[in-house]
Amino acid sequence: MIKKVVCFGEMLWDCFPDFETAGGAPMNVALHLKQLGLEVQMISRLGNDEHGRKLLDFVEGYDLKTDLIQGDFEHPTGMVLVDDTNKENIKYDIVAPSAWDFISLTEENLQAVAEADALVFGSLGVRNELSWNTLYHLVQQPVLTIFDINLREPFIDFNKIESLLEYADILKINEDELAFLADYFEVENVNGRKNNLDSVKVFCDFMVAKYPVEIICITLGGNGAMIYCQGEITKHDGYKIQVEDTIGSGDAFLSGFLKMYLEGKNPREILDFSCKMGAYVATQQGGTPKYKLEEFLKSVE
After folding, report:
1. Of 82, 42, 96, 36, nearest to 258 (Cα)?
2. Is the pLDDT of residue 139 over 80?
């Protein structure tokens, strides 16, 4: 049976000085899951403007359902202004307010989540109280919840993060977010040793003792990833590839993770496929290249 996934949060345009590209972590995850053969719905909100119409056209090009993407006549479609003058220190201005800050709670999205196999969400999508209230109701539905924490300063609210952790079954973070969280929770023997397996286990043991989180996935960029499950850490060194750009690689990784997890694969199988996904997208331009599953599997060995 085809698995059903709902992704909640931001849909936006990353606006570089000379071009724009569609983005938003939850949207990227949704588009990859769709290409991997899952049934996917996106809960978000777009402005009634040209950027909003272009985003709808964009996701419809992947055959993604748009019935839960709300329209907004008051607020503009989300945009991120990117200053890449200094390639070593790219700056981002996540424009606020944006339409995705005002995602309304509806019977339709409550029902969609209740009927799904999994709900994917992050912390950026709830920087505004209206979207926060909506997600807080959705995570309480009887569904597998995946918290892709996706910390983006200055929009980091630990009260909301801790509330979402209370409802998260799976937590996905990167190595920098691990250090950030370890510092916030004052977990000893972690900072400065974020890639050390013993330090990672200390952090993960702490998190699963404090919250109902069952699995923690930690991405390590070009060095692969780890999965913590039932007190054990499984690590994959990743795939060495010629990088085109790393936009959306983490989102692709999470899509691969979720596909394999929902198929009941073991941590090693999950990591291998997920790392292939992340590596493949890094060899392509943009965060959501189009591909067929069988073609993708042949492209990264």
Report:
1. 36
2. yes
